[in-house]
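pasting input
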Amino acid sequence: MTPPKIKIESLDFYYNTHQILSNINETIPENAITSIIGPSGAGKSTFLSLFNRLWETTPGARVEGRIQARFSDSFMDINDPKLSVIQLRRAVGMVFQMPNPLPMSIFNNVAFPLKLAGITEKETVQNRVTTAIKACGLWPEVKDRLDKKATTLSGGQQQRLCMARALVMEPEILLLDEPTSSLDPRSGAMIEELMVQLKPRCTLIMVSHQPDQVERIADQVIDFTPGSESCR
Amino acid sequence: MNRSFFQQKRDRNETAARALLFMSALVCCLLVVLILGFMVVTGLPLFGQNQAMDLLTGAWSPHNGGYGIAPMIFGTLWISFLSVVISFPMSLGCAAYICVLGPHGKATVMKRCVQMMTGIPTIIYGFVGVFLLVPLIRNTAGTGSGMCILSASLVLAVLIAPTMILFFIQSFDRVPRSWLDAVDALGGSRVQKLVYVVLPACVKGIVTGTVLSFGRALGDTLVALMIAGNAIQKPDSLLDSARTLTAHIALVSAADFESMEFKSIFLCGAVLYLITALVILGARLIERRGTHE
Amino acid sequence: MNRWGEKAIYSLSVLSCVLLFGSVAILLGYLLVKGLPALNPGLIFGSTPMVDALFLKRQVFDGIFPAMAGTLALIALAITIAVPLGLLAGIYMAEYSGRFTRSVFGFFFDLLSGIPSIVVGLFGFSAILFFHHHISESLAPCLLVSALSLAFLVLPYIVKTTQIALETVPQQTRITGLALGATRLQNIVFCLIPESLSTILGGIILAVGRCAEDTAVIMLTGAVVSAGLPDSLFKGYEALPFYIYYISSQYADQTELTQGFGACIVLLLICATLFTLAAIIQKKVRHTLLYRH
């Protein structure tokens, strides 16, 4: 197994007084796909939101314990108040269950994270957007209509666009929350293939409800079913 | 990506934006305070010559140095109260028809119409009132000019009804769908659904809507100014002419700036302001009480 | 409940609808019958040729063209003042306010939206009076004072629609930008505002409608019977609702009265157009939150 990318130590998560996660200790390997499974309401999505601190947008949420991620050589605590959450989210990409393109053109959707990060140099933007769209295998389908609204794409195309958008910042970690569950089987298969291709560049963490999908592509499984502590 | 990439940076834009946004909100709020401040400061000289209670409860007799605004307070309360009394059953009936009793297709159209009605300018209600309703009331009553509390209240009732209906509809729509389905499943009629489920669940919303509509009637200027006759007297009957606080402000402003008559309008302004504040506070309290239950 | 009780409740509800819709229909019908004869270019431009009037070559003396132009100038000014301030305050309320500031500021905005418009007008009037005495004798009620007062009047509408529009953005959309590394400000500017633009725009159009119809504020702050086309911020101006108010009490003959009815129809058309426009643009119109008189 590849060296660890993320170490989670004695982690608890509370929503107001309600405890969602308790005493979680896990290691997530680099350049691999880690799949999180378990029944609805077991806190899988919450768990995923720990890695880019998106849980902070939920009022009343609170976390205890330590999550360390290795971005250069040394591990750092991602809940460190001195660490910029904005920069963290630029280094940790996320893809949601429902494709969520923003109401702008296809090109601008993918260029959006660059704009947020203050990268405005025209040629750089052009190159990185093209590379990201190509990496997601979407280029042949959209190259002639980059200025069209992203909402004109099909569901599967939208989801790959969202992948491209997440990848344009060249994140070292990519979070995926049931990325194929709203798609037809063919589009789902394309996303799966894409995830496998991304392994050399990224550490992928995916919430999945489909056992066959986990069987096909996951390198490690974290099971959130109450009472089980299984790792593969 | 190394350690420095994740360093917390001070975001000047964020700080500046936050300050700007806060200042804007603060300016808006200060405005509210400023409005009251101006009323009080400008109206203050009145208190030098009269007792405060005299001003609020005394009679209006400028020749004897009496600037009591009691007649206007009575006029305002009479007219707005009566208009709410007329408007309430009508609005409740309409809202019930639109939300529960009537057929669905018709209801959507009717709701749109009610929304459009809120956009009819007040001056138009006043204008038509003067030339249509006032002569009618004059001829029916057989005495007076027709410019009276009753005429003004009737017009005002039609004017505030759309807002009241929309308040009621808003609260009816919050009744959980499942409750209504339950009544349907038990074979209840639409009327039963209204009486046993919707109305009891909406008491709070109905009260809030009525209180706020009362506030709206209080604040109306044009209808009372054009139709109520503007006589400064304590009204005894519905067919008496009356002047509201708002109309008093609109009428006196043309007079001499230094006169006490002129200064009395600021007292009217302050009283109106305070009544409005009480109405809003009341509505907020009613709403809040519900959320704790 | 017996069958008769049900029948009675149903009938009363239908009766309410008939009463309200009937009254409004009579109101509009009466207006149309009386005003239609006046509805021709002469109403607007008087005896001046239309082209000359539009290109400002010749003054219009006996038409409502100057009043319409005055109303237009007033709306443009008031909205220009109110929109930036209201937007910023609304954004603060929705995105930056803490529990305490939200509740306190929220009360102030409710209060501001409930203060009778004549009191806001009185505020503008007393402020300019204050400046007249303490700063310069040349300051008097004028277009600018009216526009500022009207801006205060519609400010709470804009604050509230902005706040509601932002607060009702779905959580899913809200976190899209954040997950991509947007700062709070970037998320508001690039994601939340574009998402809620149509609602905000609808609110602004309703505010325009309020500016167009308001009479109480402008009659205290600078509207006059005869001023010609508005050409200075510091002069009195004519306005459509004020013209109608003036006609209702001071009309000299039947022709003038018919002109008044014609002017009513013009004003009604303007307001109806704005309302329809707002309803089309804004999917979730919240009229009840925008009540005021």
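fyi Chain A touches chain B through twelve residues (CB under 8 Å).
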